[in-house]
Amino acid sequence: MPFRSDHLPHFKTLASIRPPRVTRVLAWMLMLGIVGSILFMLLVPWVQTAPGAGAVIALDPRDRVQNITALVPGRIEQWYVTDGSIVRRGDPIARVSDNDPNLLDRLRAERAQADAEIAAAQQAMRVAQMDVARMQSLYREGLSPRRDYELAQIKVSDYEAKVAQARADRTRIDVSLNRQSVQMIRAPRDGRILRIQGGDNATMVSAGDVVATFAPEESQRVVELYVDGRDVPLIRPGRRVRLEFEGWPAIQFSGWPSVAQGMFDGRVRAIDVSASTNGLFRVLVEAAPDRPAWPREPYVRLGAKVRGWVLMDTVSVGFELWRQLNDFPLQFQRPGDAADTATMNMTDAK
Fold first, then answer.
1. What is the pLDDT of residues 179-225, one digit of tens each?
2. Nearest-angstrom CA–CA distance, 328 and 191
3. How many CA atoms lie within 13 A of 348 on its CB side?
4. 288 by DSSP, 3-state: which?
5. Do 198 and 67 touch, CB atoms closer than 8 A?
6. Which residues lie closer than 8 Å to 144 by C-beta, 6 or more apart?
7. For a Cys staple, 212 with which of 18, 68, 241, 327, CB 3.0–4.6 Å?
8. CA atoms within a 13 Å half-sphere pointing along the CA-CB vector of 205
């Protein structure tokens, strides 16, 4: 038989039990909180992100930090810069002198000798050519045997070979002279000397040895982010990226880009087709042309660390929570739907 309220007088102990007011209020609060949490997870949107970390680099390889090497073997005779020096294109950095101080004089003397040998061989060849013409005329008139005519032609060929050999020797000497004349190491571009790695007069350097580290100025900067391979298949060029630069105060809300503060916008430029040595995939991010520019030097320098979040599809908070608990990959949408989602992400980021 079901229990009715008119039975309470028969159960005096049960009727005397009254829940405290605080308990009833707490129960209502818990019920409202549960209902509110369910509605929050079902109705509130959440922008999924593919996180990554990386650094600021120069897009053009010529604008990246590079080593300046010695062009000829020898010893550092004089330095024209120090660590941190600002240089312009063509400014001298160091002068390298050969171990033999008389090497250039000997090379010039050898070149003069090669020029004299070429002139002598050319003069002898011209005389031999005149002999060939004379022997040809005598041979046609029957006054000279054919053998003399052929010997004159062979002599001309010998002199031509001597001229070619002398010119080759002069070319070799010119190459040595040019190499030795490039004893002045100069700055390849406008930039700054980061570190001097050479020594003094007692230190020997070989051709190709690093003598200084150089960083160009006014480079086009991009960010390289290393993203997990699970998220890379869903990332495409043109995706929006939120960036947090090292040393720049920022507050990041992954799922709500419009709430974040101190963040900067980027756009996916390219994605590597193979993984890097760390097992992650590199994603190149350029500055978004329709958003505020990135901080310039000295606030954000080349090599500064960066954290980034590639904005993906928009889902509900409950779906994202379920995905995170089950360690599932990001939500996938068809290309047509992805364009609409990207438009909505751009609107949210504003």
1. 665 577 888 888 888 888 866 666 777 777 888 888 887 778 899 99
2. 47
3. 25
4. coil
5. no
6. 135, 138
7. 68
8. 26
pLDDT of residue 346: 44
The two tokens of residue 230 are: 């699970």
pLDDT digits (tens, 9 = 90+) for 218-232: 778 899 999 998 888
Q: Is 39 left (phi over 0), alpha (psi -120 to 50) or beta?
A: alpha
CA distance 302 to 216: 10
Collect all residues with Cβ–Cβ distance below 8 Å to 56 and sequence separation of at least 6: 221, 222, 223, 245, 300, 301, 302, 303, 304, 306
What per-residue confidence (pLDDT) applies to 140?
65
Domains of the chain in start order, with CATH, are: 43-61+219-349 (2.40.30.170), 65-98+183-216 (2.40.50.100), 103-181 (1.10.287)
Alpha-carbon dihedral 37, 41, 43, 47, rounded to 10 degrees: 140
